[in-house]
Amino acid sequence: MTATAWQLRRAEPTASDLEQVDAWWRAANYLSVGQIYLLDNPLLREPLEREHLKPRLLGHWGTTPGLTFVQAHLNRTIRERRQRTLFVTGPGHGGPGVVAGAYLEGVYSERYPDVSLDEQGMQRLFRQFSFPGGIPSHAAPETPGSINEGGELGYSLAHAYGAAFDDPDLLVACVIGDGEAETGPLAASWHSNKLLNPAADGAVLPILHLNGWKIANPTLLARIPEEELVALLRGYGHEPLVVEVGADGEPALDAHARFAAVLDDALDRIATIKADASTGRLTARPAWPMIVLRSPKGWTGPREVDGSRVEGTWRSHQVPLSGVRDDDAHRGLLAEWLRSYRPGELFDERGAPVPLVASHAPEGELRMGAIPVANGGEVREPLRLTDFRDRAVEVDAASRGADEAEATAILGAWLAEVIRDNPETFRIFGPDETASNRLAPNVYASTDRQWNAETLPGDEHLAPTGRVMEVLSEHLCQGWLEGYLLTGRHGLCNTYEAFAHIVDSMLGQHAKWLESAARVPWREPISSLNFLLSSHVWRQDHNGFSHQDPGFIDVALNKSPEVVRVYLPFDANTLLSTADHCLRSTGYVNVVVAGKQPAPQWLSMAEAAEHCERGLGVLPWAGTETADRAPDAVLAAAGDVPTLEALAAASLLRERVPELSLRVVNVVDLTRLQSEGQHPHGLPDADFDAIFTRDRPVVFAYHGYPWLIHRLTYKRAVHDDLHVRGYVERGTTTTPFDMVLLNDLDRYRLAMDVIERVPGLAESRADVLEEWADARARARAHTREHGVDIPEVADWLWQGGGPAE
Amino acid sequence: MTATAWQLRRAEPTASDLEQVDAWWRAANYLSVGQIYLLDNPLLREPLEREHLKPRLLGHWGTTPGLTFVQAHLNRTIRERRQRTLFVTGPGHGGPGVVAGAYLEGVYSERYPDVSLDEQGMQRLFRQFSFPGGIPSHAAPETPGSINEGGELGYSLAHAYGAAFDDPDLLVACVIGDGEAETGPLAASWHSNKLLNPAADGAVLPILHLNGWKIANPTLLARIPEEELVALLRGYGHEPLVVEVGADGEPALDAHARFAAVLDDALDRIATIKADASTGRLTARPAWPMIVLRSPKGWTGPREVDGSRVEGTWRSHQVPLSGVRDDDAHRGLLAEWLRSYRPGELFDERGAPVPLVASHAPEGELRMGAIPVANGGEVREPLRLTDFRDRAVEVDAASRGADEAEATAILGAWLAEVIRDNPETFRIFGPDETASNRLAPNVYASTDRQWNAETLPGDEHLAPTGRVMEVLSEHLCQGWLEGYLLTGRHGLCNTYEAFAHIVDSMLGQHAKWLESAARVPWREPISSLNFLLSSHVWRQDHNGFSHQDPGFIDVALNKSPEVVRVYLPFDANTLLSTADHCLRSTGYVNVVVAGKQPAPQWLSMAEAAEHCERGLGVLPWAGTETADRAPDAVLAAAGDVPTLEALAAASLLRERVPELSLRVVNVVDLTRLQSEGQHPHGLPDADFDAIFTRDRPVVFAYHGYPWLIHRLTYKRAVHDDLHVRGYVERGTTTTPFDMVLLNDLDRYRLAMDVIERVPGLAESRADVLEEWADARARARAHTREHGVDIPEVADWLWQGGGPAE
C-alpha cells in the first residue's frame, strides 16, 4: 500500500464521487458544530434540551466549513492518486474541523481509544473540545496530522515549505486564511517558491481561503479587484486558480464539482512540473499552481440570527448562536442547523460513520491525520555526526589565551561535515548572515545556498540544490526550520543576536508546541530547534546601538524550563562541544550565543568537553586560590567577551593584588544556575555552593542583561553577595573595549568590584583602585581621540595562568 | 515661502538642471566616501597618506549611492514643485548618504554648528562618522530629517504611511531596499494603500531600490522576471514605473535624464490623484504610482579590487577597499575613487559647496533635512483631553467589589471623546481587535475604521475617513503608529497581550530611538508610544495556551529605564487615570495591561486618581491591620486578576483567620518597585519600606512571570521575605478560575501562602490550610466535570471590606 506520487487524474469525478465528498463534508461539519455546542445527545436522537448544551460556548465556527470542505476534496484526490498529502491549516483556530476530519478517518480513535467511533466516543469528542481538561480549541499538538497550531497567525506557509524540503514525494496542501494573509510573516512566505527545488523537494499547494472576514473586519485580499489579486499571486510566482463556491445558496454538489475540477487541475499541473523536474526537462523555476477559494464565512451555518445576517459575515467568526442554553429560539436554530447535515444519513445506529462516509477516508498512512511526517519524531533518525573533537583548536597550558580563532568559523568546518554526512536531513537557515556569522566559507566547502530564482555570471554558491537556506526574513528562516523539524529532520538557524527578537513570538509558540507535544503520548520527540546567535551585542562595532540587544535569552527563559536550554560557549572548543550536544538533542529550544570575531582560545578539547558536560565549573588555571587557602572571592563569567574580561581582571588581580585568593568560574549552560526544582538542569545546592561558595562575594560578568543572573540564582545561599555586571543598554558605534567600558563590564571594573567586595581590601589597596579608575578614564579618552582601543586591550592581553599551571 | 502642494511639472529638466543634479550627487557621494574613510585631508589637497585614513573602517557603501541619487533628484522636484517632502530611507545603514545630504543642504551645520560648511567642518563630518563618541553608522535620531533608523530592516514603508496619515499636503518618498523588501513587515506594508485616504492623508511614493544584493546574497526581487515583479507591484495596488540606471557604465547624465523623467511622471500622477481626490472626482481607490529603481550596488565605487568585481556586487556592501592603510594599491584606488567625483569642482577654497551645489538645496523647511515633521516634537501639540473623571464608574465603600464593569469599554467611551476633540491628530491602531478588546462599540460612536478598499452592503463602521486603523498585522499597526508619532501626532495601539511579542523587536528599536533622541539637543520630545494590551493571559478562555503570554512587559523593561513605563490598572477608574496620564506624556513607551471582561470595580475615581498618582499604595479597606497593630504580613498585587484573587484571599483570611493583621497593597506602576537609582519612577527605600515593611513576609500576586517582581525589588530590605506568584507557563483552554489554580495564583493559594509565612500561624491554623487545599482540589474537579468554575468564584465573590471601612 505504498503511495505513488504525482499521478495525473484518472478520470473526472462522477456524481457519486461528489456525493461521497458531500456526505463526508456534512459529517465533518456536523461533528464540528457538535464539538462547539454539545455535551450530550450527540446524534440528536432526542429533542435538543438545555442540558445537552455546553455551559460555556468556546470555539471558532467561521473558518471551519472551509477547512472541512478542502479536507473532503483532498481525501478524494489522495484516494485517487495515492498521493502522500500533509494538510497544514493556517486558520488553525478552525480546530473542530481538523479534529472532525481525523475522527472520520478513524485516526482519532486510534490515537485516543476512548474517543471511539460510536455514540459514546462521539459524545467524548464533543465534550472534550474547549473543555477544561480536554483539548484546545485550535489545531494543536493533540490534533493528529497537525504541525501548525494556527493560534498565532502567519506561519502556515513557511511551515508548509519547511515540511516540503527534502521530501520529493510529499504534497503539502496549505490553507492560508485571508486574515493570516495580512500578517508580515505570511506575506513574506509566498516567495519561498524561489528556493524550492522541484526535483529534490516536495510540492506546496497554497490554498488561499478568502472567506472575506477576520474577527470584526473584512479582509484586505477579499476586497481588492480580482485582477489585482491575480496579479499579486502571479507576482508571487504562482499560477492562481480562482474558484468561488457557496454564493447565493449554490447547491453543494455544484460547489463540489467546481472545486474538484480546480483541485484536479492544480494537482495535474503539479504532477507535470514534478515529472518535468525529475526528467530534467524543467530548467527554469516553474509557476506552481495555487488555489484561491472564495467561500462564505460560516458557510452552512445559520444564515440569520436575531435579525442580523450571520453566514457570510464576521458574525460567524466564533459562536454564531450564543444564547442556546437560555433562548429557545436560538436552541431551535441550532437543532435546525445540526439537522441540516442530515446526521441520520451519515452515522449508523451505533453512531459510527456509515460506509459511504467511512470509505471516503484514504487508507492507512495516506490518511491526512495519520501521515507519519506530521508526527516527525516517528520518522526522525539521529544525525550522523563526525567526532567534533577532530575539529578542535589546539590549546594547551602554554598556549592558553595566546592564539586567536573565530569560534563560528571553526564550527563551520564541523558543520560542513554534518552537511556532507546527512545530505537529505540537515539544513542551515539564516537571514543572509551565514557568511557574516563566519560559518562560511567552511560550510560552502560542502554545499551551496539553495536557490531557484535567476542566477547571473559571478554568482557564488547558489545552486538549485544546497543545504543552506537564506532569505532576509528571520520569520521565514525560522518558519522553514520549524516545518523541517516538525516533519522529522534536523537543522540550525543562525542569526544576529539582536534580531532574534524578531522571532520572539515564534519562539514562544514553538516552545508551547514542544511543551504540549511532550504530554501527547503518541507524539515522538522531534529534533531540537537550534538557534546560533552570533554577531552578538559586544561586537557590533559597525552597526551600533540598533544591533545591540542580548534579550532573546530572557524571552527564551520565560518559556517552560522543560523545553528551553541556553548555552554561552566562550571559545571554539566549547562551541564545538555545545553544538554537538544540541544537534543530538530532541524536544528543546537550544539558544547558543557565540562569537565570530578572532578571539583567544582557552580550553583544550578535553577540558572543553568536560566543562560543557558539567555546564559550568572552576577554571583552576585562572584563579589564585590554593589547596590550603579558600577563595576570598569568586569571579564568574558567562559568554565569550565577559569571560575574556574576567580572565583579564584575574590577571590584573594576580599581578597587582597578590594577597587575594581568587577563584574564577565559567558558566556555559545558564540553566545550571537555577535550583534543582526550577529547571531539569538546575544544579543541586551543595554542588552550586561548592563552586560559588556560600559566603564569599561573587562578581559575575554576564553576556546579557544582568538581572537574568539574579533571577536564576535568587534561591542560592550566596545570592545576597552576588554582584552582576552585564549589558545595561549602553551602546553605540564604537570599539570593542569601549563597549565593555560603557556597560561597566571591563576588566578594570570587574577587578575593582572584587576588591571593593572583599572585606578590608578596598582600604588596603586604594592605590590599585585609583590606578584602575584612571586606566578606565584613559582608555575612554584614547578611544575617542584615536578611534581605536588602547593597545593593551586591543591585543586582548592575557597575562598567563594561575597556580594550577 | 510656503509650500504649494501637488503641482504638475512645469517643464522637462534642462541639461543644466541635470548637471546640477549630477554635481550635487557627486558631492554627496564624495562626502559619503569621505565619512567612511577619511580622518584628515578632507579635500584631498595633499596626496592621500596612511595617517589620513581611519584606523577602523566601518560603514556601508553599497546602498549609499542609490540613496544619494534619489535625494539629488528629489531636491530638484522639491524646488520645482515646492512640495513638502519627507525622505524615509529603509536602507538606513546607508547613513553616510543621508548625512551627506543634510550637510549639503546646510541643515547639518545649523543643527551641529561645529560641523561647519568649510574644510574644518568637513573634516569633523568625516571623523565623527562611525567613530567613538561620534555618530552612528546608520541614519539615526542624530541625523536631521530622519524618522527611520534602518538598522533593523522592514519598517520604512509602515513608517512612511504613518507619517502620511492626516497630513494631506505631505509627500513621503520612501526608499525600500531590496533586502528589506524580503522581510515580513515590509511585505505586509505594501497593502497600507488600502487604508490611505487620498483626500485627507498625504501621499506615499515607494521607491523600490533594486541594487540586487544583500550582505552576501542576491535579492529575490532582483532575480525574478520583470513581468513577475510588475505583476506583484500591481497586485499590491500600485502602478509601477521601472527604470534602470548605471548599467554598463551608462553616462551619469543619461541616468539622470531617465530617472528625472520617471520621477516627474510619478509626481504628476500623484498630483492628479490628489487633485481628483480634493474635488471629489476620485471615488475608487487609485493605483498610486511607485518607482522601481534598478542601479548597481556600490555604483560609482571601485569597479574591481584585487581581481574581483566589486561595483554591482555584494562585495560593495560595506567597505569596498579594506586595506587602504597598509596597502598602497588600495590607497591609490581610494584616492582615484574620491577624485572621480571631481571634488575641486564641487567645493570652493574654504571647503564649502560651490554655488551650483549649494543652490540645489531647496529653501528653508523644504529641505528634506529640515522638514519639521521629521522632528515631530517640534510640531506636536498636546491633545485636547476631556476630564477622564467624568467617565468614572461609580464606586463607594458600600458598592466596592459589588458591581461589574468592562474596564476597556469604559476607556472606549473616553477615547471616543479624545477622537472627537482631536480629529486630525489622534488615531487608534490595532490588529482587528478594537472590537474584541471592547473599545468598540463606544469608540465607533465617534468614528469609523478608515478603509479605502471595496465596501459591501452590510459593512459597519468602515469609511474612507476614520480614526481607527485595523489590519491583521501587529507590525503594520505599530509601524504606522510609530510613523504617526515621530511626525508629531498621538495614538494608541491595542492588541492581544500575547501577540505583542510579535513586535518585541520593534519595541526595542523604538525605545532605542527614543533614548538616543533624548540626547539630541534639537530633537523635541514626541508623544509616547502607548500600548494597550488586553485580552490578557488570564482571560484567554477560548484561545488557550497559544494566547497566554505576559512576557511583553519583561521585554519592555529590558530597555532603558529612561524610556519605559509599565502600568497595570486593576479596574476601570484606574485604567482611565492611567490612560489620561499616558496620553499626556512624551518620550516614553507606555505599556498598559488591562482587562476587558466584566469584573468588579474597586476604587472610586478620587481614590483611583490618587492611587495612580502614587503608582502604588495600601488598600486600607481590604486589610485587617489597625492603627495600634502593625501588619503580620503584606499581601500585594499587580494586575486586575491578581488583585481580585488577592482581595478574595484577604476576605478568606479576614473571615477564617481573624487573629492575623494583614495589609493589602496594590501596584499600578511597576517601575515604582525599583530602587531610586534604577528607574526615575523608583520609590525611595524609606517610602517603599513604609508600604511593604522591612521585615514582614510579603506575598505578591503578579500578573506576569513572577521573577520580574524579584528583579524589580531585589535591592529592597524585604526582598528575602518576598514571595511572588504569577504566570508560570501553565495554560490551556479552560475557565478563568482554573487558570489561576493552574498557576498557583488563586485566592486559596495566596491565603495559604500568607499563613505559611507568618511565624507560627501554619501550626495553629492547620485546619484552615487543610480546608483550603481541599477547596482547591474540589474546584479543579468541579471545573473538569462541569466545564464551569465553582459558583463561589464564578460569581467573583468579594466579601466586604476591612477595618478601614
UniProtKB/TrEMBL annotation, chains A, B:
- Cofactor annotation: thiamine diphosphate
Give the record's GO biological process terms: carbohydrate metabolic process
Task: Tell me which residues make up the Xylulose 5-phosphate/Fructose 6-phosphate phosphoketolase N-terminal domain.
Answer: 16-378
Q: Which InterPro entries match?
A: Phosphoketolase, THDP-binding, Transketo_C/PFOR_II, Xul5P/Fru6P_PKetolase, Xul5P/Fru6P_PKetolase_C, Xul5P/Fru6P_PKetolase_CS, Xul5P/Fru6P_PKetolase_N, Xul5P/Fru6P_PKetolase_ThDP_BS
Does the keyword Lyase belong to this entry?
yes
Spell out the Pfam families in the cross-references.
XFP, XFP_C, XFP_N
Query: Top enzyme class of this protein?
Result: lyase
Q: What is its EC number?
A: 4.1.2.-
Question: What GO MF annotations does this protein's record show?
Answer: aldehyde-lyase activity; magnesium ion binding
Record keywords: Lyase, Thiamine pyrophosphate
Q: Where is the Xylulose 5-phosphate/Fructose 6-phosphate phosphoketolase C-terminal domain?
A: 596-798
What is the similarity comment for this entry? Answer: Belongs to the XFP family.
Q: What is this protein called?
A: Probable phosphoketolase
What is the species of this protein? Agrococcus pavilionensis RW1
